[in-house]
Design brief:
alpha+beta, globular, eight-stranded mixed β-sheet, binds inosinic acid, Maf protein, 25% strand
């Protein structure tokens, strides 16, 4: 499939990441803002896929282009997969990640390495001009660290330790993270799906 993709997010970093991944596909990726679409979308789904579809469908009403959206979160096994789809809203949308991260570290006090398992999950949704809908999902497995480490990335990256790298995702470069991240993998799966259409 060729053409233009509008990515339904206000986050410029996400748009840049998907532009990098889609570069070789022949499709142009632009942000909602660049497409002149400015709407507030309430993410009230109960799964990552539902939330990504809610965002993509909302923007698709305003355009004939392909619309893509993502939804992601952090699942901590010891905390019954919290904060999960509520990751951005955990302890309040405006609370700093220093506080959110310290809170998770505190809640895992005394919990041994093997029970500190966690994963980032990302679902990507695409709504096509003919109304067809596609979703992909991917994860990256890791553990909640004992303290914040690293200055790259965002959100929960400083406490998300990836054993195979002996680093948190905040200690990986943007390119290293994109190769292995939940979002990078889910986006590449979506790129493959779009190629087959
Ligand atoms: P979304 O923008 O609604 O998908 O929000 C997902 C939330 O999950 C973000 O605000 C972060 O708190 C968290 N999150 C998702 N992906 C990552 C990541 O790659 N690094 C750090 N935190 C992430």
């Amino acid at each position: 499939m060729k053409g233009r993709i509008i990515f339904a997010t206000g986050n410029a970093d996400k748009v840049r990441e998907i532009q990098m991944i889609m570069e070789d596909s022949g499709m142009e990726v632009i942000s909602m803002k660049e497409a002149g679409i400015s709407i507030d979308i309430e993410e009230n789904g109960s799964t990552y896929e539902e939330n990504a579809l809610i965002k993509a469908r909302a923007v698709a009403r305003y355009t004939d282009a392909i619309v893509m959206a993502d939804d992601s979160g952090l699942e901590v096994d010891h905390l019954n997969k919290e904060p999960g789809i509520h990751s951005a809203r955990y302890l309040g949308e405006d609370t700093s990640y220093r506080i959110k991260n310290q809170n998770l570290i505190d809640r895992l006090k005394g919990v041994p390495d093997e029970e500190r398992t966690a994963r980032f999950v990302c679902a990507i949704a695409a709504v096509l001009p003919d109304g067809r809908e596609l979703t992909t999902r991917a994860t990256i497995e890791g553990r909640i660290d004992y303290e914040e480490r690293g200055s790259h990335g965002f959100g929960y990256d400083p406490i998300f330790y990836v054993p195979e790298f002996h680093k948190t995702t905040a200690e990986l470069t943007e390119e290293e993270k994109n190769k292995v991240s939940h979002r990078g993998k889910a986006l590449r799966l979506m790129k493959e799906e779009l190629k087959t259409l």
